[in-house]
Amino acid sequence: MVSSITAKIFGRNKFQPQGKGAHVTICARGQKELDATLEEIKAVSRNRSDYESLIFNAISADISKKDESIRALNEASERHNGKVPDVVICCAGFSIPRVFIEQPVEEFEATMQLNYFGTLYTTHEAVKRMAQQGVKGKIVFVSSVAAFVGFLGYSSYSPSKVALRSLAECLRHELILYDIGVHCYFPGTLDTEGLIEENKTKPKITKELEGEDKITPEQAAKALYKGLCKGNFFITSDIIGDAFRAASLGVSESNSAFVDAILCGILWTVSKPVRWFSDKMVRDRKSEHPVIPADNGMVNDE
């Protein structure tokens, strides 16, 4: 009763999937990887009594392209007589960490195209169909702790994740019109093949600033699931991410006013010495990133 009243007061759209069967569609570019993942999902579900009635689907598509994104949603819906999925989780993304002036503009564009526009294309089409079909569904964005704090090496990545956070805030408010829930997850460093790829271009100082802490995909999935079940709008994986979340809420929903106030106080206390130390680390590495003179053949006469 209390949780029901709280949900009504604070607009929480809780996730309660326990005991329910679920049809699952996954989407990515690589068909081989998709097929392997789909088999893992099926294996977990085989002990269910309703297994034979469940629909599992894998769709190969590049969602950074609008037409491909819509095609993927069409194919996912076709298996269910045109019904849009009840829960859409947008987690496609990548990072190419480099020093700002050493990074080509094309990499900024590609990062924003996938991380932000890929999510936008899918979400725009999905919520339109949810509203038209009367589906009181959920949209889940996967942003990053990098949306709360920016530092050397992530000038192409962090802004794309900040954009997702802002989109989530707008849609959380707007989609109340259609009883569609919106959530945004901010994981820390994920121990994936993507991390191996981004470490190939990542500046040494960025690696040192990040540290060695990382979480597995399984830990991330559990943190996201737990946050959805609680009805949290902003979801994090650990105490550090939670402190950043609490300190940058603005007028966004708080997960717990009391706990968030404590976290804000702690972060405010430690942020200045941490910032001073990280700035010093950058100053001490100036020699590692000399400015390369432009060779443009132009001369300015006095």
UniProtKB/TrEMBL annotation:
Q: What is this protein called?
A: 3141_t:CDS:1
State the taxonomy lineage. Eukaryota, Fungi, Fungi incertae sedis, Mucoromycota, Glomeromycotina
Judging by the UniProt lineage, the source's domain of life is Eukaryota
